[in-house]
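Protocol step 4 of 6: structure prediction from sequence.
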Amino acid sequence: MRLWGFTGWSWTYFPFNPRAIRAYEKAGFRREGVRREAVLDGAAYGDDVLMAILEDEWREIKQAEQTKEGRFKYEISVGRNHV
């Protein structure tokens, strides 16, 4: 099912930002390609990296998060009832 009429999202980032890379990967994005020396960074050229996530992959991640969250709420409520 395609809710937005396209199959996913993508963007580029600069590889000298490791925090951003970890955040994108944690969100489910995958590295798809590199444009070598495509960006001028001061006096030197740097790479431009493409990351993307497909809509189906994004939905799987969101569904797993909701399942985990629901389980967590249930465990808390059960624990409170037995105190």
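Step 5 (inspection) to follow. The chain is about 45% helix and 35% strand.
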